[in-house]
Amino acid sequence: MPAGATDMTTTILAIFLIVYLGMILGGLPFLQLDRTGVALLGAIALIGVNALSLEQAVASMHLPTLILLFAFMVISAQMRLGGFYDWVTRKLATLSLGPAGLLAALTVVSAALSAVFSNDIVCLAVAPVLIDVCRQRRLDPVPFLLALACASNIGSAATLIGNPQNMLIGQTLRLDFGGYFLAAAIPVGFGLLACWALIVRQTGGRWLDAGPAEAPAAEPPRAGAPFDGWQTAKGLVIAAALLAAFLAAPWPREHMALIGAGILLMSRQLHSRKMLGLVDWELLVLFMSLFVVNHALQRTGIPSDAVAGLAALGVRLEQPGPLFAATFLLSNIVSNVPAVMLLLPVAHHETSGLLLALVSTLSGNLLIVGSIANIIVVDAAARRGVAIDWKRHARVGVPITLATLAVSGAYLALRFQLGL
């Protein structure tokens, strides 16, 4: 290999390692950068050193995934501006249920909403209202917040639109929407049951909040959007129509989702500035930047050499067992989206799509940093004066993760043996 090519490969590898160090740490020391900033800086550096041309960088981005993600962010913005999430949470609080029953209802509703509107959005919108309604009922909000985070993660694994990594997997591997849902329903259903049962058991009947009804908060609560039945109905109709179309229509999912988002943007009451202001542009930039960084590394041949080296040692990543272990480990080291991007090139087995989606999503419950949804809930709790440290989360997250992954592993092994 020429010296210039060797130097370029070394530079690309160094940039890649710095970017993924940022994924692990959540930023870089001494710099005000989060994961998105680190990934963007890495993409800029690769273009700057001419590792990729601008045209190659743009071509490396998987446009169908980005369009689908953007479209559902617009639909979720419609639901937030219509006050739907606040309304649902407060309706739950008025049900004539005991604490365990309320926890079960919250678990099911959180999972169902996350399967359609994305777990991060659901947690962002529901967590502050949930704390308020728990305090109104004199209930300790911590078990309910943990249920919200864990159930949202588990529920988002049920569909190919429930979270960003599932969108990427579904679009890249062209998975059937209905077929995936039927395959994922069993481990997801068990996971929700395990989540509820474990939290109930750990609570041990101690549901009441010993603190004051209005605990001091780090910042005053923000007023939620008032419920607007018409705007909510529009969002629900579009979401239902898209789900039906994903199940039955032969057209590309990203095209149908984009049309749905366009219909919602044509509103006489909700300004497009408000709608687009709720789009998670940082997540979109993170996706685009990681596409560029990973593509640059792929061009060096290092990943294929590493996979070949592991195969020579008897570790074949394209096989379900090693892929399962690698997905679990990487999801808890660099987070699930970067992990899926790294592993998609070896996802050749017929069960790889289902495996990647289930394992990367369910692994997010292990620790707070394993999922953006966990971080959103913990941060929202801290702003309202409710402390959830990593130990408290791990008491629930670790056993739920181990239980759901054990069932998923057994289920995937059974499907493989039966040739399903």
Percent helix, as a range, is over 70%
Order of helices and strands: HHHHHHHHHHHHHHHHHHHH
Please tell me how large the radius of gyration is: 22 Å
Mean pLDDT: 91
Tell me the total number of β-strands: 0
Poorly predicted segments = none
Class inferred from helices and paired strands: mainly alpha
Shape: globular
Rounded to the nearest angstrom, the distance between the terminal CA atoms is 45 Å
Put simply, the count of helices is: 20
Characterize the largest beta sheet: strand count, sense, and whether it forms a barrel: none
Strand content: under 5%
Write the layout of secondary structure elements.
Layout: H1 3-25, H2 35-48, H3 54-60, H4 63-81, H5 84-93, H6 99-117, H7 119-136, H8 141-156, H9 164-173, H10 177-203, H11 229-248, H12 253-265, H13 272-277, H14 281-300, H15 302-312, H16 320-333, H17 336-343, H18 352-362, H19 372-383, H20 390-418
Helix pairs in contact: 1-2, 1-14, 2-14, 3-14, 4-9, 4-11, 4-12, 5-7, 6-7, 6-8, 6-10, 7-8, 7-19, 8-10, 8-19, 9-17, 9-18, 10-20, 11-12, 14-17, 16-17, 16-18, 17-18, 18-20
